[in-house]
Amino acid sequence: MLFVQWNLRGLFSKLHWLQLPPFSTATVLVLQETFLKNSSFVSLRNKKIFRVERSGSPGGGLVTAVSTDLPAQLVSFSLPSSEVEILGVKLWIGSISNSPVTVVNVYSPRGIFSDSWLDSLFSQLSPPFLILGDFNIHHPALGSLFTSADADMLLNWISINNMGLLNMNKFTRFQGGQNPALLDLSICSADLFSHCQLEVSLDQFDSDHCPIFVSFSGFGDRTVKVRSYINWRQFSNKINDCLDNSLETQSIEALTLIFHSCSDSSCHRFSSTSRQHSPWWDAHCNYLKALKRRLLRRAKTYPDPSNWSAYKKMAARLRKYIKTRKRKFWERTCEETARSHNAF
Fold this sequence. Notes:
It is elongated, with a radius of gyration of 27 Å. It has helices spanning 15-18, 115-123, 151-160, 232-245, 252-265, 283-301, 305-339; strands spanning 2-7, 28-32, 47-52, 62-67, 72-75, 85-91, 101-107, 129-134, 164-165, 184-188, 196-200, 212-216, 224-230, 267-273. Helices cover 31% and strands 23% of the residues. It has three domains: 2-216, Endonuclease/exonuclease/phosphatase (Deoxyribonuclease I, Chain A, 4-Layer Sandwich); 226-271, no CATH class; 283-342. With 344 residues, the protein is an alpha+beta fold. The protein is built from seven helices and 14 strands. The longest helix is centred in the last third of the chain and has 35 residues, at 305-339. The strands form three sheets. It has a six-stranded mixed beta sheet, with no helix packed on it. A six-stranded mixed beta sheet has the order 5-6-7-8-10-9. Residues 102-213 form the Endonuclease/exonuclease/phosphatase domain. InterPro entries: Endo/exonu/phosph_ase_sf, Endo/exonuclease/phosphatase. Pfam families: Exo_endo_phos_2. GO terms for molecular function: catalytic activity.
């Protein structure tokens, strides 16, 4: 699955490029500075369009174009007042349809952000998610020679909330007379980081920004884990039998073969598939579940009333937290559905 992120600086002037590969074959196009007006009509072959226009002044505008065969829903955010333009779309992708991926399209004209705006955005996102856009910030960590006003704030926000920045060493904007810059950032939730690969195009396609190709694969697939367990008593007995039955002094190579043979015959292998959790399940659920298992093992090993009491309290705590997570997830889903007029 291919996502294309691009500040194209005028959609109509680049429409001929969008009808050709790799744009026409991409699953999702995440476009900034479309320069569209409310009265502008635009369509792309085999794509459904989600768009936001800038009101009150020319320029700006966002478009997220999704393949028609991919279920998608507009996501509404309730954020503090800001000049940052934002467009959210939720995608149901193949085997992870029970946990949709939220794609957030962002354009900041001057790279100005606030803590309240960033924190509010993150609080309304549930993993997995991608945040793609033109943030217009400069920082030495991104290859710039200076630091813009809110660059430290934005990078700290990414780090503190355990998000991944896919590109930190490839410039994306080239304009005559100015140093190249990395203004277009690709951010993802931690669970997507190992499943995303990023490539910056060498062609600007008549813009001053290079398109960014984000390949997305493997997330949500059930992996088969094979675990080996050895029966040490059986292994020891087999080693002793082999050594007792050998009449001659064994060489190191022969002893090594005996050990390997006894190890393989005493080893038992089990395969299991990783479990798919519900979309409301989070890291704290895993933490409480692990504590519950630990207390259960302790209670079974040392069947003291205090140990059983601690286990029951942890089980009740986990049930209460799961109930809260389910209720909040359902309330947020209902709010998003009520706000959206472009569902599927």
